[in-house]
Fold this sequence. Notes:
Among the domains are: 1-29; 34-82; 84-197, 2-Layer Sandwich (Tetrahydropterin Synthase, Chain A); 380-404 and 425-464, no CATH class. The protein is of the alpha+beta class. The protein is built from nine helices and nine strands. A hairpin with a 5-residue loop joins strand 6 (86-96) and strand 7 (102-113). Helix 3 (132-152) crosses helix 5 (163-180).
Amino acid sequence: MIQNLCAELGPIVGVVVFIVVLLLVMIILLVIARIKTCPPDKILVVSGKLPGKRKEDNPSSLCIHGGVKFVVPFFQKYTFLDLTPLAINVDLKSALSKQNIRIDVPSVFTVGISTEPGVMQNAAERLLGLSLSNISDLAKDIIFGQLRLVIAQMEIEEINQDRDKFLEAISRNVEGELRKVGLKLINVNVTDITDESGYIIALGREAAAKAINDAKISVAEEDKKGSIGQANAKMQERITVAEAESKAIEGENRAKADIALSRATLREKEAEALKLAVTAEKVQEAKAQEESYAAQKQAEIARAAKEQATREADIIVAAEIERKRIEIEAEAQAEQARRIARGEADAVYAKMEAEARGAYEKLSKQAQGMEELVKAAGGNATDAARLMVTDKLESIVDAQAQAISNIKIDKVTVWDGGQGAEGKTGTANFVSGMLKSLPPLEDVYAMAGLSLPKIIAPEKKDGE
C-alpha cells in the first residue's frame, strides 16, 4: 500500500522540487539585482520603509555617497542624484548699493549637490526628480536674491576696493541659502563691476589722479632729497678728497722712505744671496763634477765589464759551437764507422756464409762421391781408399817431379875431397841425398794401406 502511495506521489514530488528550485533561483537573482553600488559621481537615494525605532525617527529617505546598499524588494525604491557641477552665469544689473547707486555685477557661480549628510537629505527631499537645468534655474534665483542683498549692505568703495570682503559676504549669504535646498557653492568669479552714473569710473579717476599727484610729490621730495644729498655729497667729497690728498702725500713720503730703506735692504739681501748663490753654485759644480767623474768611472767599469762579458760570451759561444760541431762530426763519423762495420760484418758474414755453403756443397759432393766409390768397391772401405790413392798417384808423382824439375844439375858445383863411400862420388851422393829429402813414394802409398807393384818398388833387403 505504501509503495503504491509513493508511486502515485512520485510525479507530484518532482514537480514540487522543481518549483522550489525555480523559486530559489528567482529569489537569488532578485537579491543580486537589488544590490546597488553607488558610483563616486552620484548619490544613491533609497526611499520607502527605512529602519527606525519610532515613527518620528523614520527618515523620508536614505542618502548614500559611495558604497553598496541592498534595496529591499517591494518595500524600498532607489534613485540617483547627479553630482555634476553646474556653472551659472548671473548677470546682475541695476543692483542698488548702500549709497543708492545702481551697479551692474556680472559674475559666474559654480554650484553642485552637496555630499554632507544633512545637506544630502535636503537635496533628496527638494531636488529629487529635477533635471540639471531645473536645478540650475533654482540656484540662479537664490543667487540673484542673495547677491542683491549683499550689494545693498555695502558701499561702492568697499565693493570696488575690497574685493575679498565682497566675495566673502557673497559666499556666506549664498552658501547658507543653497544648503537649504541641498546645494553647495563651489566657486564665485566676479568679472567686472560698473555703474550707470559713472561713480566707479570717477572713483577710478580720483584714485588715479591722487596716485599721480602722490607720485609727483614723491618725485619732488626725492628730487629735493637728491639735490641736498648731491650738495652734501660734493662737500663731503671735497673734504674727503683733501684729507685723502694730505694723507696720500704723507703716505707717499713715508712710502718713499720705506721704498728707499727697502731697496737698501733688498740690495744687501741680494748681495748676500748672490754670494751664497755663487758659493752654492761652485759647491754644486764641484759636486757635479765629482759625481760626473764617479759616473764616468762607473760607466767605464760597466763598459769594461760589458766588453769582457761580450768577449767571454763570444769565446764561450764559439767554443760551444765548436764543441757542438765536433760532437756532431764525431757522431757522424761514429755513425759512419758503425755503418761501415755493419757493412763489413755483413760482407764477412756473407763471404763466410758463401764459403760455408761452398764447403758444405763440396763436402756433400765428396761424401756422395765417397758413397758412390764405396758402392763401386763393393762396400769395402779399404778398397775404396786404395782406389782414391791410385787415382791421385799421378798427381803425387807429378808433384815429386816438380820438386826437383827446376834444379840445374849442370850448374851445381860439388866440392868433393875425392873420397867417396861405397864407390860414390860427391855428386852422386848429393843427388841421392836430394832424392831422399822427398817422401818415398812407397811410404806414401803404405800410409794409405797400399803396396806398390814390385816393378816400381823392389823388395828391401834386410837392414835397409
